[in-house]
Amino acid sequence: MKNYSENWEAVIGLEIHVQLSTKSKLFSGASTDFGALPNTQACNIDLAMPGVLPVLNEEVLKMAVKLGKALNAEINSPTSFARKNYFYPDSPKGYQISQMDKPIVENGYLDIETENGGKRIGVTRAHLEEDAGKSLHDDFEGQSGIDLNRAGTPLLEIVSEPEINTPEEAVAYLKSIHSIIRYLEISDGNMAEGSMRCDANVSVRKIGEEKLGTRTETKNVNSFRFVEKAIQYEIERQIHEIESGNKITQETRLYDSQANTTRPMRSKEFANDYRYFPEPDLLPVNLEKEFIEEVLATMPEMPTEKKERFVSEFSLSQYDADLLAADKDIAEFFEEVTKVSNSPKLSANWIMGELSAELNNENLNIKESKVSSNKLGQLISRIEDGTISGKIAKDIFEKIWTTGKEVDDIIKEEGLEQVTDDKEIELMIDEVIENNPQQLEQYRSGKDRLFGFFVGQVMKASQGKANPKQVNDILKSKLEK
Amino acid sequence: MALSDQELKEIAYLARISVKEESLPSLKKELEDILGLFKQLDEANTSEVNAMSHPLDLSQPTRKDEVTEEDLRDELLKNAPSVKSGLFLVPKVIDGEN
Question: Which chain A residues have a beta carbon less than 8 Å from that of B89?
Answer without folding.
Answer: 140, 143-146
